[in-house]
Amino acid sequence: MTRYILRRGLGSLVTLFFFLTAVFFLVQIIVPADFTVQFALGMGPAQREALREELGLNLPLWRQYLNWMGDFVTGKLGTSFYGNDVIEVLKQTVPLSMLLFIPGTALAYILGLRLGKFTGWRPPKILSGVTTLSGLALFTSFPPWLAWLIAYIIGRRLGTQRTVFGNPAGSFNRQLWSEIDLEPAAAASRMLLTFAVLVGGMALLNWQLVRRGGRGIPVILGIIFVGGLSFLIWQAWGFGPQAIDLVSIASVPLLTFILLTFGETMLIMRTSLREQHNQEYVTVARAKGLPESTVRDKHASRNAILPVVSRLIISLPFLLTGIVIIEDVLGWPGVGSTLFGSLYQQDMPMVMALFLLVGLVTLVARLVLEVVLAMMDPRLRITETQETKA
Amino acid sequence: MADPSGLDANEDQGQRLAHARIRLVLTYGRLRGAWLEYRKSSMGLIGLGLIIVFAIMAVIHPILIDNVWPSGIYDPQVGFDPNYFHPSPPSSDHLLGTDALGRDVLSRLLAATTPTFGLGLAAALAASTIGTIVGAYAGYYRGSVDSVLSRFSDVALLLPAPILMVIVGTRYRDISPVALGLIYGFLAGLGGTAIMLRSQSLKLRESSFVEASRSSGGGSANILTRHVIPHLMPLAAISALVVVTGAVVADGFISFFGFTRSIHNWGTMIYETITYDQALSVPEPSWHALIPPALALSLFALAFYLASRGMERIADPRSR
Questions:
Q1: Which of B157, B160, B253 is closest, CB to CB, to A144?
Q2: Structural domain tally of chain B?
Q3: What was the pLDDT predicted at B185?
Q4: Same domain for A364 and A231?
Q5: pLDDT tens across A34-92, in order?
Q6: Is residue B2 part of a domain?
Q7: DSSP secondary structure string, B281-298?
Q8: Which of B52, B82, B107, B113 has a CA positioned 20 to 30 A from the CA of residue B244?
Q9: Cβ distance of B249 and A142 shorter than 8 Å
């Protein structure tokens, strides 16, 4: 298992290198490095040359590439063309994006699995048909439009005083945040940490319970429990009201993301579970007299879930793209809004850093998922080792 | 029988004709079988129906402009109806109303269908071609060819194609939908499609019919073109249909954010309506100009996704 993880990790590093090279040259081909002209209209030619020299834009392309790669390896991401430290900007935005991405993906996944189980196991009825169709429709709906519509419904119809245009998700309550010495981004990373610890604890508890032969904790109960407990922890940590402000604003993009994402998981789970219907082990489980729910949850679902996880590995970049688009439409101050802002301003160090981030997050998430998949499906580990031996 | 060589030629021709006829019958039988299988999938049928509706929309627009609609009023780009105060809600003259500049919404909706088809088809063709070639070679030859090609696929999979297309759109504002489709299709084909087809090609490589062909002296190139690639075709078609969905939505992003100048585009219609509403600070959004393009975009994407589900029945005998 350790060898498997190491092999995969090394492979990811190589992929990351190629990815960065590809991104560098693609961005340079599409947007050539004469962009100082774009925003330095008031400068004389001499000043402009000096600026180009300062930014290292007068060097040949391969030197720029080596400089950038070298900076990246030594952990420097440089400053953006507007004088902000790129790492500072990332610190301000990444936790806020992760606050959408991680819980959003997890919740969408749980919802998709549940609905997939529901629609895939029973024979097709009106209810399962309606669920399937609405999941499909949400999955293929146009993301910015859906985001805008949800913001409109929540903003206008439920009466909260938020503008529909421009910044539909609303912005942070400045007065509330000035009371404490904490940035929203820092609060978001603390919230993520709380989630991680609590969910990890729950998983451990669940594992122990199942091992002792008891029933596991129901997922819905677990979510409620984690939510309530984490709020208490935030209150004790000293940013309770601010956390509520953050969550209430995050709810619109989060809801949009979940609605857009769960459909795919649901459809794959449905197809995959249908294939298990006629398998012999299912017949055996039924013949033993097991209740139908046990056959479904303990026997069929466990085999059906494998293609769902491997599909998730492929769709990760698309999920991240979804987050980027939703953030920009709803004005959530995360990575996505920054990326589009930098694109407008042709701020290349910033754009490159954000691409790097997207690649890095995808690779890490993929590695985690691959390990999870290998833990769930022993066949994968065996074929891997055989391949290395052969 | 005076000239034996002429007889030979005749016989040859007759034989060739007979062969062609047999091949035709076989192809017809195979297509018929595929259609009978496709027909059983209700999702596939809905998708096919939607695609036909969109095709009718694409065909009908030039006919309407030439024969029914006065082009000064209904032109999708510069039309203006002086009898109405714009934006106007749906009426008998303008079935879906007009937008803030006085252009007929229905006319614009129909005009956007053809470019969208062009984009989708370009993306599908590019993705299936690249995906089949890379996937078949990587899976069949394994070894160093595989590791190089798979690395390319991994990188292409990591690249967020819609965001790259947005960058392309900021730089080349007048880029044609077909070119955008080709770029998207290339990235998607090298990434997802190639990875999926590679694993299928790995399986085919070990199958008994490939082994039989190899033992009877078939070369690699022959096996690849005659046995492996034909068996990859249904899967390639499925992922090409899914790529159409992605390409259309990604194109919608670019125009939704106002990065391109493509006029006949559903994303542009949504973008412009929201922008005009914002500028005029109307109390309620102009739903009549917002919902049709949004619905058209979603349904177009949905149609091709559903069609891919129907294709799955043909490609994967297990699901029957």
A1: B253
A2: 1
A3: 92
A4: yes
A5: 555 455 556 666 766 776 676 666 677 777 788 777 777 777 766 666 667 778 888 88
A6: no
A7: T-SS--HHHHHHHHHHHH
A8: B107
A9: yes
